[in-house]
Write a structure and sequence with these properties.
The chain is of the alpha/beta class. The protein folds into two domains: 19-191, Rossmann fold (3-Layer(aba) Sandwich), CATH 3.40.50; 206-365. The protein is built from 13 helices and 15 strands. It has a nine-stranded mixed β-sheet, with helices on both faces. A two-stranded parallel ribbon has the order 1-2. Helix 8 crosses helix 9 and helix 10 packs parallel to helix 11. It starts with 18 loop residues before the first helix and ends with a strand. 49% of the residues are buried.
């Protein structure tokens, strides 16, 4: 487990690669969440608690979560310094491989997936438990519970298919500047079932630009006065700001009020300070290829923000027709790290797919 995974999300840092970034995240009020997600995954393995032994690294790198979940644990190494690092992750994975592990479960984001690939390549199957800010790799489950369910079925022999799936990574420094630079890093073997595993991130094609413009015009015509609009990441949502002639950040959350930009690249704290006690709407677009509406790259729109804005009724979903069709009927997903909130957000929504065009589509917990 990468104990710092995802800490930069709510505070708008778009990642936590490097301890300088982690320290900045902590100063901005970030809290660790990877351990709780690990325990949510492990609870799904409870039926096999007496049959399996968990190999793990000490303390915050997995031991604590596994023991709290009630599993037998064997430590396979030690953390070299005062803080865990990518090298600890790689050593742990290699040691687990030497100890004949049959399945490697890791909690983190794309950086952790990259470290696992460096350590074991295609040696044994892995399942990624999503906990990072950016997760463009196709090795992750749709959520912690799904990861545990997939592991349970694989260990019982109910799922036998294993696919080589992409490990992707992006340049965090460029990402913070609004530049999306992603590359294929390698492949990991993943037990596969379409219900439990996400697809890879799909880039926006040039042919979708006109569709995005039509969506933006529709949203602008229907905007309410004296209402704060949180505009989430992605080219479809940001077309709204582009049409207004406002400055914006492609990969962050911007806020407009009566057609004017009032906050650029806002973190959770700034969003709450701006909208508390006010009327607010949230415009979000799903992550292409994966279908995540909330919880991937937009953690600033937290459960608390959603409650303050009015929950389900405050959400406006925008997506090109191609992006929706690419889901092949799979629901849009939400993963706010608040299971109760995820359930409340579930259901059917009108999705703006063009000018005066709507499509009803289902949203479900990740």
């Amino acid at each position: 487990m990468n104990p710092i995974a995802g800490m930069g999300g709510r505070v708008g840092l778009k990642g936590t690669d490097g301890w300088e970034t982690v320290e900045k995240a902590i100063k901005l009020g970030a809290k660790p969440w990877a351990s709780e997600r690990a325990k949510r995954m492990l609870r799904e393995l409870t039926p096999l608690r007496e049959e399996i032994l968990i190999l793990t690294y000490p303390g915050e790198m997995g031991e604590n979560a596994a023991r709290e979940a009630g599993f037998r644990v064997e430590l396979v190494g030690t953390i070299e310094g005062e803080r865990s690092t990518a090298e600890d992750t790689k050593r742990a994975a290699r040691e687990m491989l030497k100890r004949n592990a049959v399945l490697l479960l890791f909690v983190g984001g794309d950086g952790t997936a990259r470290d696992i690939y460096d350590a074991i390549d295609l040696s044994i199957p892995v399942i990624g438990v999503p906990a990072g800010v950016k997760m463009y790799s196709a090795v992750f489950s749709t959520g912690p519970e799904r990861a545990g369910q997939l592991a349970l079925k694989y260990l019982r022999g109910e799922i036998r298919d294993v696919e080589e799936r992409e490990v992707m990574d992006i340049d965090e420094e460029k990402f913070r500047q609004g530049i999306f630079a992603v590359r294929l890093y390698g492949y990991l073997k993943v037990p596969y079932h379409r219900r439990y595993v996400v697809g890879g991130k799909s880039p926006t094609s040039a042919t979708e630009r006109m569709n995005q413009e039509a969506i933006a015009v529709d949203i602008l015509e229907n905007m309410e006065k004296d209402t704060y609009y949180l505009i989430g990441p992605g080219t479809t949502a940001k077309m709204i700001l582009k049409k207004l002639g406002c400055d914006y950040t492609l990969l962050g959350v911007d806020i407009i009020y009566n057609g004017k930009l009032v906050a650029k690249d806002a973190n959770e704290r700034e969003i709450l300070r701006t909208i508390r006690g006010k009327r607010a709407k949230i415009v979000v677009s799903p992550l292409g290829g994966q279908g995540y509406l909330l919880g991937r790259g937009n953690q600033q729109i937290s459960g608390e923000v959603l409650k303050e804005a009015g929950g389900k009724k405050s959400i406006i979903i925008v997506a090109t027709q191609n992006k929706i069709l690419a889901l092949h009927g799979k629901p849009l997903l939400v993963d706010t790290n608040d299971r109760e909130m995820d359930e409340l957000l579930s259901g059917w929504y009108p999705v703006v797919i063009g000018y005066h065009e709507r499509m009803m589509y289902r949203v479900a917990p990740g």
